[in-house]
Amino acid sequence: MKICYFDAFSGISGDMAAGALLDAGADWAAVEASLGSLQLGATYALEKTKRNGVSASKFRVLGGAQKAHRHLPQIEKIIQNAELSDAARANSLAIFQRLGEAEAKVHDVPLEKVHFHEVGAVDSISDIVASCAALGSLKVSEIYASRINVGSGTVSTEHGTLPVPAPATAALLLGAPVYSAGPNVELTTPTGAAIVATLAKGYGALPPVHILAQGFGAGDKDFPGQANVLRVLIGERTNAEETTTVAILEANIDDSSPQVLGYAMDRLLEAGALDVTLTPIFMKKSRPATLLTVIAEPGSVDRLAQLIFAETTTLGLRVLQAERRVEARRMEEIETSFGRVRVKVAASGSFAPEYEDCRALAQARDVPIRRVLAEANHAYWSASRGGAKS
To answer: Which CATH superfamily is domain 243-326 in?
Structure first.
């Protein structure tokens, strides 16, 4: 499986995404042909340049009705009539749908009445279609992104001067891990935010891959002390240890009953928390309390935080970022006298019977769970030493 990783340490825009993917080896002739079929009256160029000493590709859109304002149905018709692959067409339409929903939320208007300004112009349409066509050329199956550097300060728009991140950008990146570093300018545009928000399966550290190619897409400006580029890494997924960025939510709670906390733990796990623990602690003045710790994917922080506030008495919580390493593992099945049990097997060779399988068999056969666990462990050990696993 081929992975594309957007390393947005200096933000992301549509032209940076297209330039980086083309720099990584996407077929320029094929992408240019796809763009020509949009019939926007523009021509396109791919130039080699440098940003703070880093060689990068700059994707340019030349000519066309750059100031044209379009509604979503008009843009969808342009894309539908173009000669694009099914995946490039579907991704382009999905990105504009996501953009439209963000704009509708920001301006409090129905989706069909959203009037695209900057993102309805020729360059934005071309940036998005070029990026989607380039991803198809590279045969990318999954897309991931780093934390997103959004920049800071203000930006001039059709609606006047707005803070960075612009409202549409912030709406698109709800739940995504973002930060601000570097020059006092907009680093992530609504177009760039829409691309990652729509296509990325997750944010954080680079997934385990064999790197096949690297590309850099240049932004418009050249900053001293920071290369204004978007990097993409193209790789094949591996079975190496997985390293991911996770969020840790913590709260010290000294006025909730054990029943309430137990229920909150169940709700958090059902809502997608990776792990939840309750630890007895002592707070100031020697008050006994409980430390609630939740490990979560970065994109689920807001949802789980709301659940913590709803289901516990805490009035505040801490959100930390951490690196999580998970050893490559697989599931196998083993036959026992009580029934079939799944066994989780790590790449190192360690293994453990699946608790829920053993629990269900213990209840169904009315035997102690430790007997089921012991037999499952013995059965897998014997089979792995030379016997046959079912």
So the answer is: Transcriptional regulatory protein pf0864 domain like (3.30.70.1380)
